[in-house]
Amino acid sequence: MHPQRSSPFCPWPWLACTLAVAVLALACQAPGGTASQTPPAAPAVTAVTTGDNALDVPIVVIAAGVRDQVDEAVVREAFRRAVEQGERDFGLRPTRRITIYIDPDSAAGLEDALGLSQKYAIHLRASRTRSLPALMPLMMHEYMHALQYQVGRLRPQWWVEGQAEHEAQRVRDPAAAARDRRALLAQLAADVRSGRAPDLRSLRGSLAWDEYVKKAGAGKAYAWGHAAVAFIEAHAGFAAVRRIVTDTEGPNTLGRFDELIQEITGLSPAEFDAAVKQWVLDQARS
To answer: Where are the chain's structural domains?
Structure first.
């Protein structure tokens, strides 16, 4: 669902989600989007609506044959709200216009995702564009990937997807999000107790991420990334998440990301992985 992997520039949400190399899913459910460098094949005929030329107004491209399945007003409102949320949370707005492609549900590249992102493009399944409450988390997830790409910092794949999913949950109904989070943490805690939980250090690059997705499912992979970001917020507040999203200091390396996590949490990568797992267990018991 998004910029790239292992960085905001190497392609690959839970109801919202990414195939890539890193810069740019909830428990055991199909992912919502993917940051991919291989978008769905372009439709033969499209309806294109450009709107005005403001950077925060998307170009909407609707594939032939699905026009009657799409509520374009819902798509534009979801994008507008996502832009506002991104500015409130991170002080970021688009620096280039984003094109939203509405594709048939059967489009190549969307078989296993509800949406995906690629640099300044977002692809959505037509069936996801009729309800604003249903579309908002997905749009937020995919738009977050566009912001990750815009900032341009190298990040582990678990962060790329986990932070986009974490942000997607912020635009959901709070009560529903809390219920789903409890169920999610219970499943992750079961993995910790059974020894099936992944080491976050192994989910940094796209190849290892893809292997875990194949083994455990994209929903579980996205869930662990989301849990790690939620741990950071619980430990140091949302300001810490904002800092990691917007940080541009120092070299653009995963080593700099590790330093940032240690500055915020006081934990090395190995200690951070252990602390996230313990936090998941504690949250599941509470």
So the answer is: 1-286
